[in-house]
Amino acid sequence: MLIITIRTDKPDAELGLYDGQQQLKYETWPAHRELSTTIHQKLDELLASQDKKIEDVQGVLCFKGPGSFTGLRIGLTVGNTLAYGLGVPIVSTTGDTWQQDGIQKLLNGENEEVSLPEYGRDARITQQKK
Question: Which of 21, 26, 88, 101 counts the most CB atoms within 10 A of its CB?
Fold first, then answer.
């Protein structure tokens, strides 16, 4: 099973490509405020480096938090969109062993259909100005 992993909760974003439990390639880059413009390019480069196409992906794993509000939104939106568009399962996990746990979920046939972020605290919402 060819799996894409996505982690975007901090200034350095991470993408991984796995064949089952075996890591084929892992990319980390300082995305910070350019995550939304760099993540697709990095995904294309990651797949091309292993002579794979997006259509070869069979599962998506995302880190769901806690972390940056915007970073998590971007990463999970990309992950959910990939999974939906390709018709493949998606799971999300958290913690130090997020990759191993998530890959195992995918290999066990789990599918969240839509992965949601866990920000780690309540949103800071400012009062509406009248």
Answer: 88
